[in-house]
Write a structure and sequence with these properties.
236 residues, alpha/beta, Rossmann fold, 36% helix, 28% strand
Amino acid sequence: MDKHKESSTHDNPVELQRMIDMLGNDVNTALDVATDGGHTAVKLAEHAERVTAIDTNPEMLKEARELAQSRGITDIEFILMDVHKMDFPDESFDVVTTRFAPHHFTDIRTALSEMTRVLKPGGKMYILDCSVVDGNLTETVINHIELLRDPSHKCSYSLRQWEQLLKELPLELEHTELYREEYELPQWFDCMETPQEKRDEIFSYIDSLTPTLRRLYLYSSMFMTTYRVEILAHKR
């Protein structure tokens, strides 16, 4: 089974529709950053005149093209490109989106600066990503868990950290929300092919936390608690 095409996280219809509701149905040009399997780009293409989707992984772009073709969508341009150095002119897009990708960005400030640069004045930026509860300790805990599961993980940012990052840019925040979710187990591990010893280490680590932290990150054999952040901003 293709893990990306079947991803309930990336292709969640409720979350994708909420994104569209927040962005509005009348969009001219849209850019999806780190498109992965292309689910966000495909949803945007249902409402935008022109969609561009970028990713640094050729295999992901191949999967994204196949997804678009399978849904009869032909007006998405898929480009091999890094968000940290995008080859687009300033003020190229009405909308810039990224979902479940910023925690992989090696330089979050550069990535956000580039995303803002290519956004037109008045254009909207939408971000959805895994997140953490505000606080030095909680921010450290969940990032340690994520890194154990996925060696490519860089950092999941709290809402506090996101607001600080975005206030450095010519953006006005319209919506910010932190909400609690649950990863399904063992799928959460299987999608990254996490070795059993790392899975055991994660559970052992959570069990060693204080009662307060354990309540924030409850788990069972069926689920693991997680947090997500959703952000909508427009460019001044």
